[in-house]
Amino acid sequence: MAQVTWRTPDELLERVRHAASGSGRSVNEWITRVLDAATDPELSGSDADRVRERLARAGLLAEPSSRQVTRPPAEAVDDARRAAGQGTPLSDLVSDGRQ
Questions:
Q1: Which one of 23, 34, 60, 79 is most buried, by most CB atoms within 10 A?
Q2: pLDDT in tens, 12-71
Q3: Contact 42, 57 (CB under 8 A)
Q4: DSSP string spanning 14-82?
Q5: Which residues make Cβ contacts (< 8 Å) with residue 16, sequence separation at least 6?
Q6: Residue 43 CA neighbour count, 13 Å, CB half
Q7: At 97, is the pLDDT very low, low, confident or very high (cuts 50, 70, 90)?
Q8: Rg of the Cα trace of the chain?
Q9: CA distance 8 to 91
Q10: Residue 61's closest CA among 72, 46, 77, 50?
């Protein structure tokens, strides 16, 4: 999971804290939900719809990606799993490094 540093005016931070507290969420969870609502057109629900409407009015709503994502064939996934299990176990690497 990535971490982001966010610079914002104190006034906006207080509004975000108030909104998060009012919904029973942490600031982190509230910001994450807002960004999800802004960028994921599949996300639905009254809270998400309200956020998406506000973002659209502000000209900040992200358009859905037209890029098609395809899954690799099951055989390729199975081959990758088998190959991944052939390396040196992490426990061996750690114990070797301690000697």
A1: 34
A2: 899 889 888 888 889 998 888 888 877 776 766 777 777 778 777 777 676 666 667 788
A3: no
A4: HHHHHHHHHTT--HHHHHHHHHHHHH-TT--SHHHHHHHHHHHHTT-PPPPP-----PPPHHHHHHHHH
A5: 8, 27, 30, 31
A6: 19
A7: confident
A8: 22
A9: 44
A10: 50
Tokens 């802004």 belong to 38
End-to-end Cα separation, the chain, in angstroms: 32
Give the residue carrying structure tokens 């609502």.
37
86: tokens are 């052939």
| Main-chain phi, psi angles of 57, to 5 degrees | -65, -30
**Which residues make Cβ contacts (< 8 Å) with residue 98, sequence separation at least 6?**
none
Which two three-digit tokens encode residue 91? 């426990």
CA distance 80 to 74: 10
